[in-house]
Amino acid sequence: MKNNNGSTPPTDTCTAIRINKYLALCGVASRRAADRLVESGQVMVNGRVETTPGITIRPGVDEVVVGGTMLALPEEKKVYILLNKPRNYITTNRDERSRDTVFDLVDVRERVFPVGRLDRKTTGLLLLTNDGKLAHRLMHPSSGVDKEYLAELDTPFSARQLSLLTGGMRLKDTGEKTSPCTAKILQGGLQVLLTLHEGKNHQVRRMFRSLGYEVKKLDRTAYAGLRAGRLRRGEWRYLTAGEVEQLRQAGAPP
What is the rounded distance in angstroms from the CA atom of residue 142 to the CA atom of residue 253? Predict the structure, then answer.
């Protein structure tokens, strides 16, 4: 799926790679020549000489020295993507059952990962990035990032239960306590607009189920103040510099 606005994007990774690939990416030598460097004892990893070409290292974690020079990959540009996730796409890089994933929709050269998750049936806003530090801050419970959901229920929601929903409740399945949230009843009770500041697994569905309702459809309509705007289901776009700064403020320590 193409970026819907055609804009140009404004790596943190600990994935292990073979030492010869790492040396090649750092511009030291081709992979074949890198193997020879390792075999001849010219490469040190974490202070020790390595002579096995097949070893793997973790870029950004392991210290690699060749000829007295510590190596580092060229810094990968940070990208920040907003996707309007369709139903029946899962939020993972790979799926053992070959189901569609959100990465089938986003065509970028950089390796990005989702900030949080949306289950397969849930639609709406999903942030993808290769900025690991920002992603960690946004997902940390202390950030309290606003996440707004529109839930469509099987039966009308009773206004008498609104305080139970928003005041902090016990989830029946595990006994976990939720934090207070805000909610607005729409469409005669068949829809509820809910804003959470935490992200327990399947939280919205579990909250309504604890009160005797089933969520027929669930859409995340806002994340940290970001909204879909003109993004249709399955479309994505790069965030603007202002939106990235908005995310940084949202993820800043209290």
Answer: 7
